[in-house]
Every structure is written in structure tokens, then in C-alpha cells.
Amino acid sequence: MNAAGTVILSFFRDSCREAVEGWNRFWFTPANPATLGMIRIFAGAMLLYTHLVWTIDLQAFFGPHSWISPAVNATQLSLPDVPEVRELDLYGGRSFVWSIFDIAKQPSQIWAVHIVALVTFALLTVGLWTRVVAVLAWVFAVSYVQRAQGALFGLDQINTMLAMYLMVGSSGACYSLDSWLTRRKNPAAPAFEPSTSANIAIRLIQLHMCVIYMFAGIGKFVGASWWNGTGLWGGVANLEYQSLDATWLAFWPHLSAFLSHLTVYWEAYYCVLIWPRALRPWMLLIAVPLHLGIAVFMGMITFGLIMLVGNLAFVSPDAVRATVSWLFRRTPRSAAADPPSARQQPRGRAAAH
Amino acid sequence: MTSPLAISLGRTFRPYLEVVATQYQGYQFFNEPGPSHLIRYELEFDDGRETVRGTFPDIKEHWPRLRYHRHFMLTEHAFTQVVRVEPTPPPGVEPGTPNYEFWRKLRTANEELSRAILASYAQHLMYVHGAARARLFGIERRYPMPEEVVAGVKLGDPRFVSEEFLGTFEAEEDDSP
To answer: What is the rounded distance in angstroms from the CA atom of residue A196 to the CA atom of residue A25?
Structure first.
């Protein structure tokens, strides 16, 4: 083989090796669970609140005489009744949609499920029996979503996404009653034991957030209003959404257009610009007014807040711990106080959250 | 229009998407802001009671805000979400061709589903109030452009509101156990 062939072969060999190493580092480096624990508290609280609000209209949305009847709900969840669609389906038209409410159909059964679900979400928030409770929380979250098709919006998408990944990782390893009980029994037990599952869960949330923003952004590229700078106006001028009057933006057309363009580009390029360490704080900084703006001006407080919870996946565990310590006026544990496994975490780019 | 690749991937991974409840999650938030939709209803009784009138969502009745938003999504769902098939055939799809027939069947199935959703809303309202008949009206509210607001137009200006009769629905007999 000539010299050029050797160089090319060597390049591809090194690239493959680096790609495999990078892949393993990205997914399987044990991570401090502080960020995941904090996401569990906020997501658990949002799941609890979301389902507490369902309580007011429980039978109206989940009962036999609900807004969307069980029969209509099943119809809209199945493939269209068109022979060509069913013939082309790889699974013979079979539905894989499931919900506890397929079994619990009577008002008393629905109430029983609802009470257990509320207790489950409360336990997830405080982190008691988290491993089991996280699985149950996901089961309940999906069950409600599949039964209430037609009354859903972005909040429910993020709720179920976060519930799924909280189930994957050791979300109760810190900031939880589980960890408190463990350390009460064994004071030497580390408060923030790094784990691979915590890293995998955080990575999945991060990637999912990138996918969400990418589609939200490129979807807006199709809309004419986002090109002519009135996209944001369409949100604030919608009387049904409006919770705080922002029609003063009509007098500031350049500001309105700038915010519209910023929204689109921030969303579309989030999946790229959130990864470099230098840009990440700026991307997160923009996320705060953007989502709080949706919360305050468009009345979607829950949606705005849960999107910020999703963004929390990009905040490093060290920053989470420092913030918690500052809030509770406690000195953060020094690195020397951490277990050896925590100190051995690689400091490479891919290992950082 | 969806690409053939996206359709094939969607078909292949449908079991996973449905199990984890992501089958309709396009993550398309406010792609193109448009008018908002409400439903006005009139409920009539056979026992001589006066007609009950109302609208949903109702910001005064539906509190907290999340509860209001759930009812708002119901009306938006009936008007927009469920119409996943364009009202006119895609360019180049001529009547009499297999593609046109396919589009027509899909469109019909979606229209029937929209109708079933409205009927479901009507049945719910009649069940709650004990009414015999429900008449539904769709309200569409467009929003004014910035220059109109600068000129003094208000968001709630009635000129931006249009109403459409959606139908009369008779109460079904309650056969639930």
C-alpha cells in the first residue's frame, strides 16, 4: 500500500476509534445525579399539579359521558377506516395504544385510579420508593394522555417525556426521601453517588429537547408570519390565549419582528448551539425569557415552566448543587468530601452536561 | 405532504410510538398563528325548562388557567387538529385516478371523525344538563394586525368574529351500565 493509502486508512481507523470512544463517553460516563434529582422534583410537582387540575373535571374528561367519549377516543387513536391505509400497515391495523382507563371505565374505578395516581406523583416529587414510583408515574401519565386525546397540548408531551426518562435513570438518588433514609441508616453513604443510569437519563432528555426545538423551529420556517416578523404578534394578539396585554408590541414593529426571528432561529439551532460550553449559558439564558414570556403573556404557565424544567438537563450537577447550597445557606460539600467515584469523573467535553 | 421515507419510518415504528404515547407528537408549536375557535351551545329541554346557553372555553368558569386551556384545546381539536387531510386534493391528483380516490376516502374519514367529535361534545353537554337537544355553533375569532391595533382597533372587536352553525344533536339513550 502506498503512503497515501496508509494515511487514508489511518484517518478512517482513528475516526472510527474516536467515534466509538466518544459514543461511550457520551452515554456511559457515570454522572452526578444532582441534575436528574432536581428534574425529578420539578417534573413530579408538575405531574402532580397537572393531574390535580384533572380532578375538577375528572368524569367530564375520563368518565363514560366525557367530552370525548371512550368510543370516539378509540376511533381517533386508531388508523383511519380506509382499506388502503390498513392494507399497507405492517401490523395489520392493530393498535398498540394502551391506557389504564381501557379497564377502569366506571366512575368509581376512575376515581380509584385517580387517587392512586395523585399519590404516585406526590411520592415521585418527594422521592420515596422512587424506582418503583417512577415507573408507575409514567404508566399513569401515559394513561391519562391516551384517554384525553383532544384536550392535550405541549405540556402533556413534555410531562410524558420527562416521566419516561425519570424512570430510566436513578432519579431518586439525591434530593429525595430515599437518599435521606439511606444516609440515616448509613451516615457514610455518599449523598451524590455518580451513576451511568443518571447520565443516560440526562442524555436522553437533552437529545429529546434538541429534537423538540428542532421541529418547533423548522416547522415555523413554513409559516409566512415567522418570515414577515409577525409570528410573535399572532401569539400575543390572540384574545383566547392572552393573559397579560402585550399589544403595545404593535407600536414597536422592529422589536416584535426581532423577537419573532430570534424565536425561530433559537429553536431551529438549539440542537447545535446548546452543546458548545461557551454558548450553552447564552442559549439557556434566552430560554428563560422565551418560556416565561409564553407563561406570562399567553397564559400557558404550566407549559412555559415544564419547558424550562426540560432545559434544566443542560445545567451541570455542580451548578445545581451550588444553587441548592446557596438557597439553603449551606456550604457545598467540597470535592474532597465526595466519594472517590465522584472525583474520577472525566472532565472531557462529552462528559460534561 | 409527508415524504415516503417519513411515512415508512412512521409505519415501522408505530408500535413503539403508540406504546410511549408519542404517535401524534409533531412538536409543532405555533407554526403559523391563526384564528382561535370556541363553541357556543344552546340546550333545549322536553320538560319545558328554558333553553340553556353557554360557550366553551369560558375564562370566567374554567379556573385555574390549565383547566381553561383543556377546554380551549377541545374546541381547537374539533376545528383544526383532526383535519389532517387537506380540503382539496394535492396538485396533480386528478378525479378518477387511484390517488384521488385515496385522498377522497381519507378526507371523508376525517370529516366523519370531526363530526363524531362534535357529537360527543353535544352528548356530554346534554348528559350534564339533562337536555334533549343541543345546537352547536362554531365561533372563529381572527386577530387584528399590528397596524390595525395602532389605529385603535381592539382585540375583541366583533368585526373579527364569525359564527357558523355546526348542527343539531339529539340526546342518545343512556346505555352505560
So the answer is: 10
How close does chain B come to A312, measured CA to CA in Å?
19
The answer to whether A220 contacts chain B (CB < 8 Å) is yes
pTM of the predicted structure, to 2 decimals: 0.92
Q: Tens digit of pLDDT for each residue in A48-83?
A: 999 999 999 999 999 999 999 999 999 988 888 888
Which residues from A are below 8 Å from B110, CB to CB? 80
**Which grid coordinates are listed for A203?**
442524555
Residue A343 in grid coordinates = 472525583
Is B144 in contact with A237 (Cβ distance < 8 A)? yes
Contact between A36 and A316 under an 8 Å Cβ cutoff? The reply is no
Please tell me if residue A227 touches chain B, with a CB cutoff of 8 Å.
no
CA distance A249 to A255: 7
C-alpha distance from A282 to closest chain B C-alpha (Å): 22
Other CB atoms within 10 Å distance of the CB of residue A191: 19
Q: Say how far apart CA B154 and CA B144 lie, in whole Å.
A: 8
Contacts of A85 in chain B (CB under 8 A): 106
How many Cβ atoms are within 10 Å of A161's Cβ, its own excluded?
25
Cβ-proximal residues to B40 (8 Å cutoff; 6+ apart), any chain: B53, B54, B55, B136, B137, B138, B139, B163
SS3 annotation, chain B: CCCHHHHHHHHHCHHHHHHCCCCCCCCCCCCCCCCEEEEEEEEECCCCCCCEEEEECCCCCCCCHHHHHHHHHHHHHHHHHCCCCCCCCCCCCCCCCHHHHHHHHHHHHHHHHHHHHHHHHHHHHHHHHCCCEEEEEEEEECCCCHHHHHCCCCCCCHHHEEEEEEEEEECCCCCCC
Q: Is B117 within 8 Å of A91 when comparing Cβ atoms?
A: no
Q: How far apart are CA A205 and CA B132, in angstroms?
A: 49
What is the signed CA dihedral for A96, A100, A103, A109, rounded to 10 degrees?
A: -170
The segment with the largest mean pLDDT, out of A119-123, A227-231, A324-328, is A119-123
The C-alpha atoms of residue A204 and residue B137 are separated, in whole angstroms, by 44
The CA distance from B83 to B110, in Å, is 6
Q: Among B3, B8, B11, B29, pick the best mutation site for testing chain A contact (most A Cβ within 10 A).
A: B29
| Confidence band, pLDDT 50/70/90 cuts, at residue A39 | very high
Which of A259, A165, A167, A173 lies closest to A209, judged by CA? A165
Cβ within 8 Å of B, A 61-80: 61, 64-69, 72, 75-77, 80
State ipTM. Answer: 0.93
Nearest Cβ partner of B66 from A53, A82, A225? A53
Contact A219 B27 (CB under 8 A): yes
From the CB of residue B61, how many other CB atoms can be counted at a distance below 10 Å? 12
Percent of chain A with pLDDT over 70: 93
